[in-house]
Amino acid sequence: MNLNKIFKNALLVALACLALSACAKKVGTGQMQGDVYTGTDTVEYLASGVPDRVFFATNESVLTTKSRETLRKQAAWLRKNSKINIVIEGHADERGTREYNLALGERRANAAKDYLMTYGISADRISVISYGKERPVDSGSNPLSWSKNRRSVTVKAN
Amino acid sequence: MFFRYLLVLIFLIPLNSHALIEVDISRGNLSPLPIAVSPLSLDKESKQSLQKILKKKDLGSEISIVVENNLKKTGLFNPLNKDSFLQKSDIAHLKPRFEDWALIKAQALITGKVTVVDEKLRVEFRLWDVLAAKEMLALAFTTVPSNWRRVGHIITDKIYERLTGEKGYFDTRIIYVAEEGPKTRRIKKLGIMDQDGFNTKYLTLGNELVLTPRFNPTNQMVTYLSYFRNLPRVYLLDIETGIQEVVGDFPGMTFAPRFSPDGKKIIMSFAKDGNSDIYTMDLENRIVERITNHPSIDTSPSYSPDGKYICFNSDRSGYQQIYIMKSDGSNVKRISFGKGLYGTPVWSPRGDLIAFTKLHKGKFYIGVMRTNGKGERLLTENFYQEAPSWSPNGRVLIFYRETKTDEKGEGFSAKLWSIDLTGYNERLVETETDASDPSWSSLLSN
Q: Would an 8 Å CB–CB cutoff place B187 in contact with chain A?
């Protein structure tokens, strides 16, 4: 989770190499841009064409361009289905201390919530919960697995 | 019910006040003190009644094994093989033949006697300096027979204190999170056990996720995080009655709880709208106070033993670092300035050090620094480890470590480990299941 910025740049290069070699070795279909997951391995859909999750860089809660695009699709779907309420689950990878990761998961879930709100979704329809590093989707101990676990997931609440 | 035992302690003989053998615990001990732990002697009648009450054949021997294992795990003592003992245990307890013990290179000798009087267990022991041919300590305890392991721990505490000049940490318990199941769907329960891994009990059933349990100063209450009904909140649990309650009425996640040193308050983080700050709640009048107010993440608070200061974890500089402040939240000062990220600060019971987890270049370290941030010392490096908790005498840290999984994502495990403040004597702490988030109690007796 928590990487020092100084060596993060070096890591980005390393991660890019890893992502490439991962493709070469056909280790899953996942990919990363920087250290943000861009693949579709773990993604589920709220409705056709509406992905349920967005991914984050290590130690970050900033939404990427692709994440914002996904959240706009979620907002459009929520506007069409005005009776549906949602829970946004915030998650962190295993590379951080438990308590800090709980806070970070909460920050990520709220980043997604805030974006949905700017697209007209009422705060009343959205609750957030942080699981920190407690619920990884991928049990691997490598940068690709970690990138899949740094996520916020939108789940139907009703 | 774990903590209330009838325990009577009698000094048998006035002590010789000047120190004889001394064990220096401030260094990694390269030559542990050779010590002979003679089996405690047991007369026939007592043996028979103990067999009836406890179904134990030789409790004298079993208590001596508890003592021996405790001493061995400190790394400061080298308990000698009992096969080499020349003198019978009952006679040695009356008057050791010091030449016999010196012959097998013992420098210290422990002898004792177990009797049953009116269904009560009476245990006496003596500590002898073999080379000076002198008694150093003699004590007796009376308690209920089911308490026999605790007697072994209390004896170890007394011996440790006599030989090192510092309080022991053996009559203590560990509360922790017991883990089972695959990494992506871990089942977690609160577990509690004696410091040596015996007498494990589970305090929750595993129906909801539980994390970060911590004892109150009297070891009767535990505060922890539970996801009961999918609402992550700080809870308070009375170990004896099993009664639990939510701490405070917060409209969002509360986490990272700890007690104040007087046990009257719980300090914790409250997260709302993407921001975590530190709050306290007074357990008597339920008054909630906000301690930090900053748009960054503030978490993992831990009081100094005098209650005047709080160390905590914040990313207000951009990354996780350790800060200290006065207990009212004023005078916030960053103290960690080394390379990497710092988390989980926890104040030593002696007050002079802060233990922490550090992440640097993809490795996790457990370390200590002085309260002004100077004198950083890393004790152990690993793929993943965190959450140190101090032994009550401030000499040992317990923490948890997780393994790297293989290419298939399998082979995950989480275990408790301990290490001396010196950086030596790293040991696996045995648990029935996988385990994490350990928290060490204070001494149960005295």
A: no
